[in-house]
Amino acid sequence: MRTTAFIAASAISAVSAGRIQRAAFRSEDIIYKDVAIIGGGASGSHAAVRLRQDYGKSVVVVEREPILGGHVDTYLDKTTGKIHDYGIALYFPYQDSFDFFSRPDINVTLSPWFPAGGNEIRYVDFASGQELTSAFHSPDEAAGPIAIKRFHDLMIANGWDNMTQPGYWGLPAGKDIPEDLLLPIGEFAKKHGIEAMLATMYPSTGGGVGSRGDFEDILTLSIIKAFPTAWSKVFFGEVGMFKVDGGNQVLYDKISTLLGNDVIYSSMVVESKRSNSGIELVIDSSPFVDLEEEPGSEGGKGKETGTTKERSTKKLIIAKKLLLAIPPTRENLAPFDLSPSEINHFSKPKYGRSHTAIAKHSKLPVGTQLRNLPLSATSNPLSPFLQTPFVLSFTSLASDAPLFSLGLSGTNYTAFPPSEAKKVARQAIQKMVEAGTLPDLEGEEVEFVAWSDHGPGGFGVSAQELREGWMEDMYALQGKRSTWFTGNGIAADFTTMLWKFNDVLLDRLVEGL
Fold this sequence. Notes:
Residues 291-310 are annotated as: Disordered. The protein is an alpha/beta fold.
């Protein structure tokens, strides 16, 4: 996701909801479609292709950024000519969803991925800058996968996998949700004797999801969205991982070509009217100001300009159905004519925020991964959990360039914008310099040559709210007022699983079209 500030100054839009005047638009600025899709990431792009090709429906995709791709982030190093994926990097097969890659008009080439190796791993406490001593021993490499296999088998044996993947269609009503799934993941692991999985699971989930700062306190049901049973198979070798040749952006560039003028880029919804008979959307490409203040860097996606951008005029979309493929936060949904009950529903979740980036500095150790672990991991390696916000690691990307990928997580969405995340990254490097772990920077600034805001993570509702039917209510909104929801806000957060979620959803969406 190039930015999560999908709307700007959205508060004013709700005021005018329902007052759209068709006569105010020129005929060439009115777009009639079967389905309007908001968001051109993995879910929105896939849905657009399938609706056009498999269902014969007309679509329009409204994408805030100038390209499709969502959480895909691909950086071209102009010096070396090498391509680096620093967002979504890999794909794993899930049911028949891999077939999408081989569609005639897409047809990207996948290659098996294997760990490249070569990077020396150094364990460093980024909070203090100190490198963990030789007394630290990483957990038994076999113990984690064994525990994850037991977790997988437990999910299957209890039928919990069918309740939670690819979406929550099969989750029982709130009062009937299995209590084990509402336990904090730490308690769940202890109850079932699989604590060894947590240290392996933790970095895979980006250090946790949702709004809780302590990984072990995150609800198991929330963790499953970021670590579903299908993904767990990768860790004990049942399925492999694959990469797109030429970088992941290749896939979305081909989708962009396929969809052509059915995508409206660099635009956002500012007004809407939704009813059971259809929807109307006013989209705006006129000047607006991004919510972030720091300029984007060369090689990135130019997401944080903080400048007024000249765009084209407003357009009116009239469609039979609306598919929202954006995180269903209260802020993102503000322009969509929410009812009081919808406002109440979407105001409950608390979201964290994550970012990915590529940093460049001549003093960072090429050929090394600096992995963030608290000093306490020396005595308790099974609990290497960090206090947010944090950088998970600095990982060398190439032997011929001082480029390092990093992922960052924070528990408070509004308090962890890119500007704050960059401070956290710079502070981590400075702490390592002060502790003697890294050499003096000699006045050279850390450069972020690419940056991507991956936005809200998890659905951050409490066990009590889930018992009271929050997820049941979320899925009950599907189809109401001609509106459908897809994406990682309400389904497993992996591309191939999101595509399979779409397969279920689209069959329902097209009924009556």
